[in-house]
Write a structure and sequence with these properties.
The structure is a single chain. By secondary structure, this protein is α/β, with parallel strands linked by helices. It has helices at residues 26-37, 52-60, 84-100, 114-124, 138-143, 157-166, 194-199, 221-230, 248-257, 273-279, 295-302, 333-345, 347-364, 367-379, and strands at residues 12-18, 43-49, 64-67, 73-74, 81-82, 105-108, 128-132, 151-154, 172-175, 207-212, 237-242, 264-268, 283-286, 307-310, 325-328. The strands form three sheets. It has a seven-stranded parallel beta sheet, sandwiched between helices. The protein has a six-stranded parallel beta sheet with strand order 12-11-10-13-14-15, with helices on both faces. It has a two-stranded antiparallel sheet with strand order 4-5. Helix 2 links the parallel strand 2 and strand 3 (64-67). Helix 3 crosses helix 4 (114-124) and helix 11 (295-302) crosses helix 13 (347-364). The longest helix has 18 residues, at 347-364. Pfam families: Glyco_transf_4, Glycos_transf_1. This is Glycosyltransferase family 4 protein. It comes from Desulfotalea psychrophila.
Length: 382
């Protein structure tokens, strides 16, 4: 369907578009993992994104990355953005970038960049793929034009089923689960390094519950703190929160009000989250009010941890209830507290569930399977 010219050296140039926050989160890490492992003998990536933090990481893995504002024409109450002048300016810049880099396909790593990407693809007569990480509203599916992409990829069956109920997609849709590196990064430790715990003020005897992710309302960290305060198992149980976000101060005040501030530790954003899974946590929790998939659960499971997650979004696709972990009803702090108490009391159960979580991660969320699936979706359009 495209008028692209197959490169003489057998390599296709693909322009990846990404719009995100300054912190590197799930969609950013998935993009980094993908571009780190793409077969460069087939696909040469070029990236335009709006954040310097992501650009720096991409340059580190030898990907050409350009920081550029991706404008919006979006009607959303107070957050309405009608960046018409910037949109026209960007259209010109993107056109030059596509010509200069002989781009064969545009890959939008979220819905918003597809708004500009759609027109660029049609103007340049090249295909557009859109990778959807969240269940956008019907209005955004139309406004950002990703319903018209030549291929739409969803991160979970939940996201796909939610979206296809809202709009009719013009072309093929597919679910491709995110993948993680279970070989070189996320794997159970050979030995439990107590020195890492000690550097954080934790003892080898502490039973540590943890959540890794943004400190915002949707991640449900307040639910976890509330449940933690209900646990009656002694003073050697700690709660570790790895991440940053707008709710941090409110969460600290909540821990203080509930009388557990000395047992709830905030460590901020960390790049070495694999070390926390391997050497700090005994139990991993994701108490989200909404979650597209739940990448941190997969990572923790791959490291041999039992996982507990809310029964929402794509989380039931990554936790096999009462096998690799527990599922609890959203906002149900009593149910969560009961599940955590059971895991605290039963180290054998923790070990058994962790082993199952490792097996599930390898079978269902393998990084190279993810990369090959994305490569296939790209090359089949060229």
């Amino acid at each position: 369907m495209s008028n692209t010219t197959y490169q003489g050296n057998g390599i296709h140039n693909v322009l990846f578009l990404h719009y995100g926050g300054e912190s590197l989160r799930g969609s950013e890490h998935c993009l980094i993992n993908l571009l780190s492992n793409l077969d460069r003998g087939k696909i040469n990536p070029v990236v335009i994104c709006n954040r310097i933090s992501l650009c720096k990481r991409l340059v580190d893995i030898k990907v050409k990355a350009i920081k550029y504002h991706i404008p919006q024409v979006t009607i959303e109450g107070r957050n309405t953005k009608l960046e018409f002048f910037k949109w026209i300016k960007s259209f010109i810049f993107f056109s030059k970038t596509i010509r200069a880099n002989k781009i064969d396909l545009i890959y939008s790593n979220s819905g918003l960049p597809a708004q500009l990407g759609f027109f660029m693809a049609r103007y340049s007569q090249i295909p557009l793929i859109c990778h959807i990480h969240a269940p956008h509203s019907r209005r955004f599916a139309w406004m950002w034009l990703f319903k018209y992409a030549d291929r739409v990829i969803f991160v979970s069956n939940y996201i796909k089923s939610t979206m296809v109920e809202k709009v009719t997609f013009s072309n093929t849709t597919k679910v491709v689960y995110n993948g993680i590196d279970t070989v070189n990064r996320f794997f159970p430790p050979n030995k439990h390094k107590t020195i890492f715990r000690e550097s954080l003020g934790l003892s080898s005897d502490d039973i540590v519950i943890g959540q890794v992710g943004s400190l915002n309302y949707l991640k449900g960290v307040d639910i976890l703190i509330d449940a933690f305060a209900k646990i009656k198992t002694g003073h050697n149980v700690k709660l570790v929160l790895v991440g940053e976000g707008p709710e941090e101060q409110n969460l600290k005040e909540l821990a203080s009000r509930l009388g557990v501030k000395d047992s709830v530790l905030f460590f901020g954003y960390r790049d070495d989250i694999d070390n926390y899974y391997k050497y700090v946590l005994n139990i991993k929790v994701l108490a989200s009010r909404f979650e597209g998939l739940g990448l941190s659960i997969i990572e923790a499971g791959a490291c041999g941890l039992p996982v507990v997650g809310s029964r929402c979004g794509g989380i039931p696709e990554v936790i096999e209830d009462r096998v690799s972990g527990f599922l609890f009803s959203v906002n149900d702090t009593n149910e969560l507290a009961e599940q955590l108490s059971e895991l605290i009391r039963n180290p054998a159960l923790r070990k058994k569930m962790g082993k199952q979580g490792r097996s599930l991660a390898k079978q269902k969320f393998d990084l190279m399977t993810y990369v090959k699936n994305i490569e296939h979706e790209i090359t089949r359009l060229l």
